[in-house]
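Changelog-adjacent note: as of this version, every example in the card shows the full chain rather than a window. The one below runs 260 residues end to end.
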Amino acid sequence: MVLFVIGCSKGERASIMSQIWFYWETPDSLVKITHLEGYKYNGFKMMPLATINGDTLFPHDYYLGATDFYYRAYIDWIDNGDECKFKIDYEEGKGEATDTMPGRFNITAPDTTFILRKGNSLNITWGSASDADWYWLEIYLSYYYIDTSGYYEDFDFYLDTIVDGALLTLSAIRIFPGHVDSVLYGYGDVYVEAVSGSKLEPGSKGNIKGNAVGFFWCVYDTKPTWFGIENLTAINRANRQSEIRKKHQEILREFALENE
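Full-length structure tokens:
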């Protein structure tokens, strides 16, 4: 997932990025998967061997190029709350790191019966996940309204942010600007991830030690929630978890490049 260059005259030190990610593919199906990427300027002689708690990761999707590799593997033997000892052996060197898979938690507000009214703030709360170092939120609001000039318009609000605690409040003026006269209907969705590992802030250091350098995270993506704006009119709402995970992986990649 992360490729970042470390100078090394002998070409023995690899840059590694790995994360364990739990997410709900359906309300009853929890997917447990790990992503692993690495870079070494003179390449890898073979696909590196990686383990979690001593169990070998067998890739179901992989790539080995001239200077980099990538693979994903299912890790059904890991549960929420487990300490996760990651080790990698790429023949010329080894690396390791330890994090804990955050515990399960739920979004407590808003819920699927909630209706957000014009002029009200939006309070988003969730239960604290054990062993989580920080939380990653994505919020999307969309509604149809009449503006102060009498025209019908669409309004979209999007926020992707990191929070230390278990509460985020969006003020009414932020989500209902002054030109909004009356809201007809709309909806919102909220996604929250609990993360164990280096926080995405300037100066954060990688936690992989040994011959390799890099980052290792554990992420639990709780079930998202949807709610109505002014009413609960049935609207086709897409589950954006896959899109969000892909985007967050790109953000992690950029973060590692800036903090190599």
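Structural remarks: The mean pLDDT is 90.
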